[in-house]
Amino acid sequence: MTALAETVRFQWSAKEPEDLTNLDLAALNHILCGFNASDLVRVHAAAYKDAASSLSLLRCPGMPGAAPVPGVGAPGADSGLPSLRALAALAQSGDAFGDPGGWSAGTVRAIGCVLVGLPTAAVGRVPTASMHAMLQALAGSEQAVIRHCLYGTPVIAQVRVNALLP
């Protein structure tokens, strides 16, 4: 994944991370998992916000429910988690979705699996009603993917154990 990201960065060398648009982010999709977090935090939060729903099923190597990628870390390693943490930081920006305490079900659905990158304290601020409504609104394979990546995350799994999520 990292090698693929390096190739993309070389081919797109005329663009700095802050030049990436929502369309670029949506096109890169899973390749973003191989980007350095230091590059991703330079992406404009508004571009991330506009691309968020396209990235909601993003599953990076090392996160719950992600398929192992040959040559990328050891099984269970968090090689893709720094990228998810950077994207989650963008989601919390005032130019994107702002404080997790004010997120609606639609916002939570748009962010999707990137929620895995949120710090524990931020996950705790996401309204349980928003998480619940988002999970109830999902259907079919999308629901299975989101549930798998979220429930494999200890903090979110604990919220579920506490009977706050379906």
Which features characterize this protein?
52% helix; 166 residues; mainly alpha
What does this molecule look like?
- With 166 residues, this protein is mainly alpha-helical.
- 52% of the residues lie in helices and 0% in strands.
- It contains ten helices and no strands.
- The protein has helices at 2-11, 22-28, 37-40, 45-55, 81-91, 105-111, 120-125, 128-137, 140-151, 154-161.
- Helix 2 packs parallel to helix 4 and helix 6 packs across helix 8.
Computed over alpha carbons, the radius of gyration is 15 Å
Question: Could you describe the largest sheet, including whether it forms a barrel?
Answer: none
Average pLDDT score: 80
C-alpha termini separation = 33 Å
What structural category do the secondary elements indicate? mainly alpha
